[in-house]
Every structure is written in C-alpha cells, then in structure tokens.
Automatic annotation (TrEMBL):
Protein name, as recorded: Histamine N-methyltransferase
Organism per entry: Galemys pyrenaicus (Iberian desman)
GO biological process, alphabetically ordered: methylation
A Pfam family assignment: Methyltransf_23
Subunit structure of this chain's protein: Monomer.
Enzyme class: transferase
EC code: 2.1.1.8
Keyword set, alphabetical order: Methyltransferase, S-adenosyl-L-methionine, Transferase
Reactions accelerated catalytically: histamine + S-adenosyl-L-methionine = N(tau)-methylhistamine + S-adenosyl-L-homocysteine + H(+)
Length: 228
C-alpha cells in the first residue's frame, strides 16, 4: 500500500516517466498481497515491477556476487532496519547504490517514542526467538553521522490505542501484546509477573496517556531522508 502511494506521487511529479520498481521482501504472503493490489490498481502501465523473495542481506549478496549493482533514484527502508544484523553495513551498501541526487527514505520509531523506553527497560527480559534490533532514530542518526552521510530527520507524532491490552481474553489485546513485545503468544510464553510489570508501566506518562477512557501509546515515528 505504501509503495503504491509513493509511486503515485512519483508519477504525479514526473508524468509519463517509465519506472522500474524492484521489491525486496522475504515474506511470500506480503508479496502475494502486493501483486493482488497491483492487479486491482489502474494507472500503473508505465511501471515495471520485479519481486524478489529475499531479505536485504540476501539481495546484497546476490547482486554483489553477480555484479548486478544497479543505481537507483529512490530507495526506501520503512520499518525494516530492526531486522538487519549489521545496520551500518546495510546503510553503506544501499547508499552506494544511489544515483546522482538520489535519496534513501528510512522510517523507524522515534527516539522520543514509548518504544525506546519500553525496549530500554524490558528488552533484555523479553523471550525473543527471532532477529529484532531495538533501534530508534537516535541510534540511526548516530550511525549516519559516523558514516559521514548527509541527512534530514523529521518526526511524525503518532499514537496507538492499546486499551484492549487491559481486557483479559481480548483477541485484539493479545495481538497487541505480541506486537509490543515482538514475541509470538506473549501472554502464554512470558515469564511470571513480566506482563503485570509492563501493564503498569504502559499507563505512565512516559509511555502513553489516557484520553476519553483510552490508553494511547506514544508511537511517534521518525522519517530520515539520506542524500546521495
């Protein structure tokens, strides 16, 4: 959905231009949904889509080995750098693929969000069994500074209704717990007392605020635009 919104903006800015859109996505389900959406969307005649079921690391390995290092005018990394093992190396590689005047758009949670505080306090206690780096815009801007890349950072205030987390047996609440903790079936796998601790903390002002009877988690995001 976001890709097609981006493409429509590019088309509006450059009418009639031919666009190559290369998709790197490890989830076959997400690729299938993407293809279904493309099939239903009009005004995509000038866009050539290529889908690659692979992670960014697998993409990097493949194009490097085959010496298929194509230059791009725009690369986006929306909510994905949490799942990269070596973030500075990933940034350096994709920055090297930028054409003249091209840009990378990175979207991650803001360093002022409730996520940062949640991860700092509880990250080491969450029973993670997959790759997830607790990285925020604070961490990323430091990495970009060390790499010497020019960038601009914009914050987007955002909230997420977590009220259902406080209703026992609520299906949506259970899914929210999984999302907040990056842990599948958190309610049944969490160590004793951990959920109660987090529940108590999530009600504090540094994590969320209450409005019209709802708990709204500070879900603020940062948009980082990296120059070629």
């Amino acid at each position: 959905e976001i890709d097609l919104q981006i493409l429509s903006k590019v088309q509006a800015q450059y009418p009639g231009i031919h666009i190559n859109n290369e998709v790197v996505e490890p989830s076959i389900e997400q690729i299938a949904k993407y293809k279904e959406l493309v099939a239903k969307t009009s005004d995509l005649q000038n866009i050539k889509f290529a889908w690659h079921k692979e992670t960014s690391s697998e993409y990097q390995k493949r194009v490097t080995e085959k010496k298929e290092l194509q230059k791009w005018d725009f690369i986006h990394m929306i909510q994905m750098l949490y799942y990269v093992k070596d973030i500075p190396a990933t940034l350096k590689f994709f920055h090297g693929l930028l054409a003249t005047n091209a840009k990378i758009l990175i979207v991650v949670v803001s360093g002022t969000s409730g996520w940062k505080k949640l991860w700092e306090k509880y990250g080491h206690r969450l029973p993670l069994d997959d790759l997830c780096q607790y990285v925020t815009s604070y961490d990323l801007t430091q990495m970009l500074d060390e790499l010497g890349f020019k960038y601009e950072c914009y914050d987007l205030l955002s909230t997420m209704d977590i009220s259902d987390c406080y209703i026992d047996g609520n299906e949506n609440g259970d899914l929210l717990w999984d999302f907040l903790t990056e842990t599948c079936n958190f309610n049944t796998t969490a160590p004793p007392g951990l959920k109660a601790e987090i529940m108590k903390d999530l009600q504090k002002p540094e994590f969320s605020f209450k409005k019209e009877g709802k708990f709204l988690f500070n879900n603020s995001l940062s948009f980082i635009v990296v120059e070629a």
